[in-house]
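Entry type: protein chain
Record version: 2
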Amino acid sequence: MADLFEFADELGPAKIIHVYEPAHNLKAVLVVDNVAAGPAIGGVRMAPDVTTEECIRLARAMTLKNAAAGLPHGGAKVVLYGDPNMPKPDKERLIRLLACSLRDEREYIFGPDMGTDEMCMSWVNDEIGRAAGLPAEIGGIPLDEIGATGWGLCQATDVALQLCGYFCDFKMEKARIVVQGFGAVGKHAARFLAARQGILVGAADSRGAIYHSAGLDIDKLLKVKEAGGSVTDYPRCQKFERDTVIDFECDIWIPAARPDVLTEDNVHRLQAKLVVQGANIPVTYGAEKYLHEKGVVCVPDFIANSGGVICAAMEYQGATQAAVFETIAEKVRYNTKLVLEESKTQKIMPRDAALNLAVQRVKKAMATRRWGIF
């Protein structure tokens, strides 16, 4: 394993905690990156191949995301080793054990992420009373169910296209969309964009990818997924291996699954004009640089996909669902416009403009702390 201090800088991470209970097959990592703005909020990501390094990068993404969104929270992340599709009783036991193990880490507020959901957060809340993204039945605003992150992606996409005089040469109406990761985030992004006359031509999940140049029926595809199927169970379309989704010709490409799906090794295959990042850290810096030089606009992850954490933070403070949607739209639209215009004016990548924005806000928060630290 790499020296973890190589990931450290003036912003953090403040704390890295490894949780290991071999008798119960519990192995997890919590990274609290920065709490200058307030207690850190970030999701629990469950997968068999997560790593400490990935957790550190994701926690930093949450620091930047929360700062850019102007939330009174720092950034953190938990990775939990395991199959998210394990039997429900086994998953519940692991999640409850994890919550109890981190009971005293009061600078961290649990939230859902890839492999966990509102029910998982209800288990955490039952154990320690410190979770966001809860089911509606216990007073929560279920961000995956309502599509909070997807709603934000739709807003970011809309702003990028409104600035089409410089950034894009097409409009939302009849824009061809491909979603890599047709799950909790991707399916809602597709649904909201389709409501604005976008056309979903391709989609992928963990079991494969599909494409139809004339467009896929969103409602039918959603029913397939709700029934527990894969996108590849959708009829009357071309079917491909999962990673072939990078090659699908489109106008808008939305990565909404795992980190590093676009890298320096495969980014040349992408056939899109606009990339709106629905997942956390889905595109490497080198790949973004390549796309920028080719004239492809990339709206960074912590700007475009902040709808979920905005929803979670507002729920934690007792806000209503209507207020959440309004706030997500306001914050995401404002930040997307700010970042893209700064990119144009300064002739820098949108990623660099976004980093300048978020880091400046984190440092201002740090300056208010007694010791000036995270």
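Comment: The chain has a mean pLDDT of 94.
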